[in-house]
What does this fold into?
Amino acid sequence: MGSVSAVTSMSDNSAPDLERSQLVLEGSQQGFATTRFEDLLNWARKYSLFQYPFVTACCAMEFMALAGPRFDMARFGAEAPRFSPRQSDLLWVVGTISQRQAPVLKTVYDQMADPKYVIAFGTCASSGGFYDNYTTLPGIDKIIPVDVFVPGCPPRPETVIDGLLLLQDKITRGDRSVGIVKPRVDPVQLRNPVQLRRKA
Amino acid sequence: MSKQVLDRIAQVFGAAILETHSAFGDDTAVVEPSHWLEIARFLRDDPASSMDHFIDLTAVDYPQRSGTRFDVVLHLRSSERLHRVRLKARIGARCANPAADANPAADVAEAALPKIDSLTSVWVGANWFERECFDMFGIAFIGHPDLRRILMYEQFVGYPLRKDYPAAKTQPLLEYRQADNEKLPPFDEHEGMSFGRKTHADRQPGRNLLGFEED
Amino acid sequence: MEPLDVELEDGELELPNDPMQVLMGPAHPAMHGTIRIALELSGETIRKADVQIGYLHRGFEKMCERGTWTQCFPYVDRLNYASPLLNNVGFALAVEKMLSVTVPERCQHYRVALGELARICDHLVCLGAMAMELGAFTPFLYYVKARELIWDVFEEETGARVTHSFGRVGGMALPPTPFFKEMVRSAVPAVLALVDDGEKLLLKNRIFLDRIENVGVMGKDMALALGWTGVVLRATGVPYDVRKSHPYMTYDRYEFEVPVGTRGDCYDRFMCRAEEMRQSARIIEQALDMMADDGPVSIEDPRIVLPAKDEVYSTIEGTIQHFKIVMEGIQVPAGECYSYTEAGNGELGFYIVSDGSGTPYRVRIRPPCFASTQGLERMIVGAMLPDVVPTFGSINMIGGECDH
Ligand code: SF4
It folds into this structure.
């Protein structure tokens, strides 16, 4: 039970109030583990997200990068794309959803089996972005519930990975409230600020 | 672009060419809408012009113009002679019947649409471009084999690229969801960061947001 | 679940033989999420096809009528999102044509170099996606890796990975970084090496070749009448490249060749794209050699180009100039013009109409892949259902551009 003891030793360092959110398996050195059934289930769920990429627009370019070798989403247990909504439990909505596309998205969502999670990838999926016009759906949460919003036009892959981790975190906690990826502060930049403007 | 082509059609069609001009290196002929198809076919078949490459067909809306509201604009190119030409036709009454002003639906009705001949018999490529024009401006192309909306959905009412269509007027196909209020933004302060979030309130004197010492 | 031992009439389990209606897309993985093909099949042969687009119509033309000319750039970026810089440059050239200005030579070379890098990206995306849709995931990874190298250069230059909004009327947003040439010179050979690797994986693969050879054939005359341009047209054997036939910017001064196909099938389109990447690399090299290391990149016209930031803060003229351009927009003389450039997919035209104010009266984009997608129906009718995937992949339909 090497893996269990690894989990245990990790949990030793964690703050007690975070225990519920971080600790899934309470293992012991004696070779058995006790946990709540639903925690175990959530733990399993979060690392085996079968994703359905609903990819429409420019954000797809970043989505490709995310699947590519440099950012490699597979590291986070969200590797296998399933192009059948019935076999997937994470719906990535990547790109602008037009009014015409909306019923399609809704159908795909309805076909997915519970538990299902939705990530809105990019500003367009989250809010319609700067396409404030007659044809664009102002955010997919108008038609389907969303778990995590990832802002950016398009979001950088790092942001998306943040969003994915956030979703996994929420799955562990069994929390279905809305999450949004906020900007992080880059420690390097704070210490030696980068010259952003170029000299002409 | 080619001046000779303009001269040639002006010579052949005479009064059907309303005006020609050249600006910014583009040569334009404004033609009588009733001769639209005829001139287009001539441009393709005449060996001196041989406009076999269909480039673009679109429209421009000038609601303030009286009499002819739309410009239909066609761009052509010759793959052999490498010249280009632009044809324009001014069509459409500003208001076919006075009642249409009061009743927008009448303006949209099939019968009230401005009309022009379809060029699909000359270049097959005109097909989608004309459908797009129909979809966006509500211009009916006579003789088009399959005049349906192309970019918008069937249920859409109105023609979005007309100047009088409000840009932000949506016609949703699906009813919007009524989300629980608590799930909508503004979000909780710590929401979104699995590792917690530092704000300026937590900041210690002499240290930056991440707790590093400030220089 | 139904019991398995139900009594079946004879032949009840068989599929209805003729004709079968299938809707392919828009959520089909090979349809890029933005296109639907209504098919009528007889067995696996396509009898009728109706290609329906518009699932990504975002009202580009309407949105452009609401801001200033400069505010169109972000929208232009998102037309062909595989190569935004080419669109930026195309739009900037259109407005410059109306204003009758020419940017300094350094800027032209800079635009060419960035544009050709973007073209390489575009073709990488197309080939990668095409291979992936045919089940070859590994080459896709090579191509994405190569694209990542180019994006590093872009990020350094423009600050963004995908949507740069870097073009400006009368120049570029910023001058090249001091390391621009060095970065490009080191990135391009690495990219080409990866392209070669990816290609080796594909072109020695019997399955891949069988699926693209003699599939989706299109003839010359039909292609012209359909309004095809760019790679898809050149694959049919028409040597039309805007850069050669109607040179703009400094394209007449570079040495490069235009690859042309013979049969107009998916294989030709694939090979033309691959070869064009190499030609682009040649152009980039020459552009870098010709590009001066210093000098202005923007024209000097206070009515068009924003003043330097320190001037805005310290002089009243600078402030006023900045205010006028930002609030009122660049005043483009009334008139109309059609300007065309060679984008990733073919002739990208902008037909712009100005009423003399700072806001465009009409911006019409002539999307190259709108015309190519129109031809899809002709290529797939009579073919087999699996042929749809490579054919569609090889025309590189980009939703943002095709659906405006
Ligand atoms: S968020 Fe930006 S990049 Fe993403 S689909 Fe919308 S416009 Fe494109």
